[in-house]
Each structure stands twice: as structure tokens, then as C-alpha cells.
């Protein structure tokens, strides 16, 4: 079966491509080509064409024995169609092929197979212009011209780099620039941010020295004692002077253990994203630190970490009736099929309010609910 998100008529399907391939290979005598299906005369194998959006009434589910399902132009397939299709192809040994030109990194197919860890027994291959046996000199000339005039557009059209979310608070182009930038260290104390992982999330430790994020460390550790030991080692290794710890939930206990472990070597401060922002233009500490990070990016340097790139460029934002910046909640991100932006949160925590000369009691700030 060959399908795509929408197929209003057989003319907009891949049927013509299959027919052309059959004739090009001289196999037309082996197939019975009809208007809606193609049948192999000897084996009885049938190629059908379907639109997923139009088929949700269930005709695919009624088909028995689908061996191969090819989903073409998969970047256009909706989450609803993905959830409908996958359980439908259930014959033992059957496979589903997805082919797509990356459009937006929040597209369900790209999110499920590239951004996140793909399901077991999944084979992922990137195929580009380098693999095209029909690449002509004229095509290559057009490619090089676009690369010279518009590198970002070139990356998307020719290298398969997806676009960021147009409604994201931090645009993908800003992140890429910070990855490609090489900066000279500013001699400032090293500040660390620890986003404590919950459930399926990673715990992430960000290490920042002035205008550069030096390292991102990730652990999937359930034991808080073990996690506190790992964090302690890395903070001491980098001679960190301040460590902000997301102390909500299990983070409270880890904050206490880190205070004990690090002693006088590093100040360990609490971080609560729901605290009231010290700046009236933002609703809370989450928005405040993300805003600081965004304003820092044009002069800063960050590691080329795929999780950091993907998750930073997909979180959306809005404003309250008091024109205060508020970030999209993690619950809403998950509903869109996105993971928690742990890597970005850790980096942003290094921009939390801190006075290295005169410590402040941030833990005494009134907590507020952040939806």
C-alpha cells in the first residue's frame, strides 16, 4: 500500500511514478495496471493507493495482509493519521516506510523518528543530493548558487535541515549562529544550572563561563544520591562558583545533598521557574531566564547538541493581559508531541538572578503558580 496524508484523486498519488518505473524497467508484461490498483500477474501482489486523512473511516483497517506500507511526503502526515496508521499495519513481518523532505522539526514523523529515539527495529537513513544518480550539472550549479546567496535556505532545501517553529520564542537561525560562533572567553565565574529529570526526562547540567556554554552533561539516573554525586564531580571539575538547582519535587532533596557535597567550594541556590520574575516584563523565572538566554545568544556560543537545538526552537510563547512574557507550559508541549526542553532549561538557569558579592535569599521569594 502506498499512501500520503491527502489523496483527493488517483492523479495526485504515486501511481504514475510506479507505472513509469515499471515501464522504465521493461516489466509492463508482468503487471496488470488498472485505474486504482496495480497487480502482479504471477504473485497476485496488489499495490493500492490511499489518502490517510480521507481513509479514517476505516477501509485500511479492513485490509488484510499488508506487507509493505510506504508513506510518501510524510512531512505532511498529521499526528492523528500517524496514530491511526501504525497500529493498523499489524501483519507479522510487515514494515512501514516513511519518506519525507524535512519541513518543520515539530512535524510528527520528524519528531518521532529523528528528534526522539525511534521505535525498536527502526532503520533511519538520510538521503540527499549526494545520493542522487540523476544529479545534473545544472542542478548542482543551482545548488551552489543558493548556498552562496542564502545559506539558511540552502540548508533546508538541499541538506534536509528542518525549519524551526515559526511561533517559537527562540528562532532556529539564532541557535545555529550561536553554534557556529567561536568566542573568546570572558573571565567571569563559572555558573552552573541543573535541571533535575522527572519520569522519562534526563537530568541536565549546564556549565557556563561568560559568553560560552562550556558543556552539557546528561544523565538518566533514578537514584538521587547517585545523581548528586555525578553533579558534584562535574561542578568541582569545572571549578563552578554558583549552581542553581531546580528544587521542585525530587529536586529539593538533591539540592540539600549538593549543598552538603560542595560545601564552601560552590554556592548552591534554589531555582523555581514559577517564582515571580524580578523583571516586570516577564511573568516568572522561567520566562525571565529564557529571555536572558535569548538576548545572550547573539554574542554567545553553545555546543552543537541536537537536543538543545531541537527543544530550544520549538517552545512557543504568549503574553498576559499585563503584557508579561509567558512561555508555553511543558504540559502543552507534550500535547504537541514534544519533549520537555531540559537542555535549554539547564542553560537558562545559569542566567538566574545572582549577586556573587552579596548572597540573596532567593528561597524566600513567594512562590506563584505557573500554568
What is the topology?
Elements: E1 2-4, H1 15-24, E2 31-33, E3 37-40, E4 46-51, E5 68-71, H2 79-85, E6 95-98, H3 108-115, H4 137-149, H5 151-159, H6 172-180, E7 190-195, E8 203-209, E9 212-219, H7 224-237, E10 242-246, H8 251-262, E11 267-271, H9 285-296, H10 306-312, E12 317-319, E13 325-327, H11 330-335, H12 342-349
Parallel strand pairs: 1-4, 1-5, 5-6, 7-10, 10-11
Antiparallel strand pairs: 2-3, 3-4, 7-8, 8-9, 12-13
Helix pairs in contact: 4-5, 7-8, 9-12
Q: State the distance separating the first and last CA atoms.
A: 44 Å
Order of helices and strands: EHEEEEHEHHHHEEEHEHEHHEEHH
Q: What does the main sheet amount to?
A: 6 strands, mixed
Count the DSSP helices: 12
Note the beta-strand portion: 15-25%
Please explain how this structure is put together.
With 371 residues, this protein is α/β, with parallel strands linked by helices. It has two domains: 99 residues, Rossmann fold (3-Layer(aba) Sandwich), CATH 3.40.50; 193 residues, 2-Layer Sandwich (Nucleotidyltransferase, domain 5). It is built from twelve helices and 13 strands. A six-stranded mixed sheet has the order 2-3-4-1-5-6, with helices on one face. A hairpin with a 5-residue loop joins strand 12 and strand 13. Helix 9 crosses helix 12. It is elongated, with a radius of gyration of 26 Å. The C terminus is likely disordered.
Amino acid at each position: 500500500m502506498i499512501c500520503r496524508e491527502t489523496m483527493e484523486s488517483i492523479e495526485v498519488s504515486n501511481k504514475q511514478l510506479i507505472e513509469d518505473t515499471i515501464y522504465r524497467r521493461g516489466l509492463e508484461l508482468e503487471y496488470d495496471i488498472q485505474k486504482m490498483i496495480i497487480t502482479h500477474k504471477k504473485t497476485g501482489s496488489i499495490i493500492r493507493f490511499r489518502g490517510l486523512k480521507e481513509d479514517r473511516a476505516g477501509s485500511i483497517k479492513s485490509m488484510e495482509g499488508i506487507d509493505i506500507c510506504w508513506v510518501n511526503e510524510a512531512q505532511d502526515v498529521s499526528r492523528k493519521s500517524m496514530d491511526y496508521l501504525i497500529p493498523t499495519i499489524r501483519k507479522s513481518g510487515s514494515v512501514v516506510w516513511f519518506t519525507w523532505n524535512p519541513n518543520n522539526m515539530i512535524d510528527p514523523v520528524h519528531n518521532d523518528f529523528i528528534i526522539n529515539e525511534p521505535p525498536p527495529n527502526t532503520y533511519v537513513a538520510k538521503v540527499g543530493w549526494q545520493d542522487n544518480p540523476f544529479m545534473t550539472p545544472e542542478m548542482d550549479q543551482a545548488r551552489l548558487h543558493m548556498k552562496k546567496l542564502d545559506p539558511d535556505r540552502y540548508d533546508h532545501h538541499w541538506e534536509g535541515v528542518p525549519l524551526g517553529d515559526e511561533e517559537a520564542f527562540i528562532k532556529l537561525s539564532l541557535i545555529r549562529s550561536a553554534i557556529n560562533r567561536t568566542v573568546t572567553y570572558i573571565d567571569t565565574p563559572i555558573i552552573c544550572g541543573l535541571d533535575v529529570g522527572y519520569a522519562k526526562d534526563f537530568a541536565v547540567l549546564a556549565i557556563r563561563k561568560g559568553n560560552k556554554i562550556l558543556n552539557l552533561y546528561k544523565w538518566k539516573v533514578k537514584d538521587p544520591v547517585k545523581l548528586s554525586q555525578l553533579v558534584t564531580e562535574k561542578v568541582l571539575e569545572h571549578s563552578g562558583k554558583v549552581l542553581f538547582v531546580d528544587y521542585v519535587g525530587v529536586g529539593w532533596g538533591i539540592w540539600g545533598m549538593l549543598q552538603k557535597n560542595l560545601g564552601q567550594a560552590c554556592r548552591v541556590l534554589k531555582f523555581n521557574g514559577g517564582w515571580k520574575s524580578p523583571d516586570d516584563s516577564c511573568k516568572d523565572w522561567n520566562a525571565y531566564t529564557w529571555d536572558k538566554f535569548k538576548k545572550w545568544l547573539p554574542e554567545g556560543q553553545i555546543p552543537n547538541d541536537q537536543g538543545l537545538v531541537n527543544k530550544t526552537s520549538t517552545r512557543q510563547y504568549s503574553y498576559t493581559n499585563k503584557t508579561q512574557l509567558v512561555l508555553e507550559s511543558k504540559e502543552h508541549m507534550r500535547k504537541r508531541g514534544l519533549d520537555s526542553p531540559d537542555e535549554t532549561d539547564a542553560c537558562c538557569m545559569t542566567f538566574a538572578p545572582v549577586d556573587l558579592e552579596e548572597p540573596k535569599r532567593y528561597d524566600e521569594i513567594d512562590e506563584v503558580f505557573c500554568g
